[in-house]
């Protein structure tokens, strides 16, 4: 299966490993089954020719993965060529040295396929868990990112900061197979985050979960302007898009099938955040309409949405989250298959 990265976009999938009840049966699969299915999904994505597989980090019993590097190392042994990334690593509450060495180890184990996507996280349970204060939310991320980039550039590091003990001629081992690990910053919607990613010259991954794609265009402009002002070349300033997706042979079938799982997903995610919001079918129809960023539909519909965003952002990567809300694994398999066999060839033709 051909990839389209030579034409400017890599296509892949990612999981946050949520463990939600089936909206029809009320039953919840075990953590073991969820993990087995995640590894199998990565294997299928690799065999189908997709470019990237991502695994997220949470520290809650309703999510299966707290250590992406460990899970990705298992995936590395079940795959051959697909890139392996975190989506995301919660850098504010991770020790940058431990994070870097874990992913450098993954890079060695996988033969040079590891990446880090760092973010501040949508949940805050990791702050008390690792002894940090949410009052330092932004400052922690800035300091840890500063150190992470230095670790990526140097085998021996001297460094001092506010939150972590200083380093003096510390040897950072192992070194990755790649000259440096690709590092991205996940951006939800704040101009400050986009500007920081640009200044640092790292990739920017936009989490676009819905709405009009046009509202994210200013973030891309801020990112590239900040990067150029900081002296980085345009070819280094890569933009990725991540979002929820569900594919079927027709758009109506995709909507009919996905709505119960999508409504289920937001029901338990909003409950985790102390909100009782429910999504009606009418709301869902609006959220998944052709003008929005929710990638639900036929392969043709999904391609149209990716191409519209590509016109706006000129992005180089698209990652689809296809396993939310208790979606059964056979439906996840179908989305992977349709992405690889239908979406990628159509994108190839349109972007060649």
Briefly characterize the structure.
With 352 residues, the chain is an alpha/beta fold. It contains 11 helices and 12 strands.
The number of strands is 12
CATH architecture title: Alpha-Beta Barrel
Q: Which outline best applies?
A: globular
- Level of helix content? 40-55%
Mean pLDDT: 94
Q: What is the distance, rounded to the nearest whole angstrom, between the alpha carbons of the first and last residues?
A: 16 Å
Helical stretch count? Answer: 11
SSE order in H/E notation?
EHEHEEHEHHEEEHEHEHHEHEH
Q: What fold name stands as the CATH topology?
A: TIM Barrel
> How many individual domains?
1
Strand content: 15-25%
Oligomer: single chain
Radius of gyration from the alpha-carbon trace, in angstroms: 19 Å
Major sheet: 8 strands, parallel, barrel
CATH superfamily: Luciferase-like domain
Q: Low-confidence segments, ≥5 residues, pLDDT <50?
A: 1-6
Structural class: alpha/beta
CATH class: Alpha Beta
Q: Strand order of the main beta sheet, please?
A: 1-2-3-5-8-9-10-12
Task: Explain what this protein looks like in three dimensions.
The chain is an alpha/beta fold. The protein has one domain: TIM Barrel. 44% of the residues lie in helices and 16% in strands. The strands form two sheets. It has an eight-stranded parallel barrel with strand order 1-2-3-5-8-9-10-12, surrounded by eight helices. It has a two-stranded antiparallel ribbon with strand order 6-7. Pfam families: Bac_luciferase.
